[in-house]
Amino acid sequence: MPFTRRIEPGLARFLLSTCRGVAVAAGVFCVAVATLLIANTAQLASLRPPDSPALAALREQYRSAPDNAELTARLRELDLLGRRAYFTRQWQIRAGSYLLLAGAAVLLACLRAAAALSKRLPRPRPLEAGEVRVDPRGVRIALSAAGAALLAAAVLASVLGVRLLRRGLPGEERPAAAARKTAEPELTSTAAYRANWPQFRGPGGAGIAAAQDPPVDWDGASGKNVLWKTAVPRPGYNSPVVWDERVFLSGADENTREVFCWDAATGKLAWRTVIPAAAGTAGAAGAPPRVSADTGYAASTMAVNGQAAFVIFATGELAALDFEGRILWTRNFGVPQQNYGYASSLALHGGSVIVQMDQDEGGRVLAVNAQDGAIRWETPRRVLASWASPVTVDTDRRALLLVHGNPFLTAYDPNNGKELWKLEGMMGENAPSPAYAGGRVFAGNQLLSLTAVDARFGKKLWETYDDLPDVASPLAAGDLVVMAASFGVVTGLGAADGTVLWKQEFDTGFYASPILAGGRIYLLDRKGVMRILAASGSERTARLVGSPALGEAAEATPAFRGGDIFIRGVKHLFCIRGAGG
């Protein structure tokens, strides 16, 4: 080659020796990384944190003693350790795949350079009597075959690792169905929708209440300022939804799923309706879903639009009921394949119910016609399982449907399911739902970061890494972002740049999401104590206004309507009466 003829013989020999040495090192590196990748991939494929024998034993003890605080803490600690190990292994596979590809590229480059630098060997001398010469072509063929096998193993390990991290939904090549035009009113834009508490975290899932002066002082044990308290017939971690004088919750166990409606003024149970089991779900032929003790079968918060109430369970059953408790329609999406159990809450947009269905084998987001249960549009998602809930927001330019998953934060057009932008890198067990304020989207989880994103283009603006929430969703209001961690730290951040404005530390952590009401921030901790803060983005302090106690543990986000607060404890539903209630 012209290039090699211009190099001095001594330099050419040095470069050839160097290329061969680097190629050998790259080959050894590729073999080592490929071996580790294959081993990690095999282990990850069989690793399921909820199936740990130690966790199973603790769950059995928990069933017999659910009020044992020490046992509950041990169960959660072991569960969190298992989840961290699981996602650490995921990160190792992703990083190893990139390293393997880089090593293979270096190996191929060095081999090609060595071939170009090699000089033609002199003609071999004649063979003497009885002498055997090894054919160099056979050696080259053997070496080439070994190199090809190494490269194939490297590619296979990379593909297996990436596929395990980013499995797609079977049939995802189908385009999203076109939106179907209907004539029903856009209920989610009405004043009644904004005045009530129609879904998880209130109107639009924003965590901002219309209440002007909610209460700041009560005591559940003595009944002080408690309008009523009533037992909830079946367990569940979903939050109350409220429309006018009706309060709704769902509850379920392995065999039965129910919806409950109470009179908001008196606490009297107006009706309870059992949702019949569909084929292949719990209570019917087929295996029930796998759920953990702190997720259960009814973790998803309902939605209500003034005409009907909508509910979804861990079995994948979606149902609509009228305000008298009669079932209007049902749909069965199949049992979601997830660790811990399904927990994404329903959202509303116009005349549609929005469902986020992210599973181990991929996901999809759907809009279901609120009137008859027909699917208006359905968009596949290349994601792993997540437990976050969809959020709809109105920006200056358009409406957005924000969906937080693993590994993407995605914005869709809520009218037709078209993807508008997608930000990759949201790895981990995403349970907190996104928040929006002032043209920025905020999303993250405890094992990664909280990320601020430009809502127009999906561009990352800033990140923060300390005291992140594990379950509770962030609150964004004006120029303030509030995070509530499961270990008790509450942080106020400047929305523009993520600057830490203030921190408050409490002995008990938070699973319920923070709510802004009456200019105050309401944070319900896991012991049922409401931490009420007065703070804003212009202040570098947060003043504790009060810490009223419910008298029992609580993990569900409270609902606000008028001057009243509705709180679901582990056993009871409470109505705290405010001045405007």
Account of the protein in words:
By secondary structure, this protein is of the alpha+beta class. The strands form 8 sheets. Strands 1-32-31-30 form a 4-stranded antiparallel sheet, with no helix packed on it. Helix content is 24%, strand content 28%. The N and C termini lie far apart (88 Å). It is built from 6 helices and 32 strands.
What's the layout of helices and strands?
Blueprint: H1 2-5, H2 9-46, H3 53-64, H4 69-117, H5 136-165, H6 191-195, E1 226-231, E2 241-243, E3 246-252, E4 257-263, E5 269-274, E6 303-304, E7 309-312, E8 317-321, E9 327-332, E10 347-349, E11 352-359, E12 362-369, E13 375-381, E14 391-394, E15 399-404, E16 408-412, E17 419-424, E18 435-437, E19 440-444, E20 450-454, E21 460-464, E22 475-477, E23 480-484, E24 489-494, E25 500-505, E26 515-517, E27 520-524, E28 530-534, E29 543-546, E30 559-561, E31 564-568, E32 572-576
Antiparallel strand pairs: 1-32, 2-3, 3-4, 4-5, 6-7, 7-8, 8-9, 10-11, 11-12, 12-13, 14-15, 15-16, 16-17, 18-19, 19-20, 20-21, 22-23, 23-24, 24-25, 26-27, 27-28, 28-29, 30-31, 31-32
Helix pairs in contact: 2-4, 2-5, 3-4, 4-5
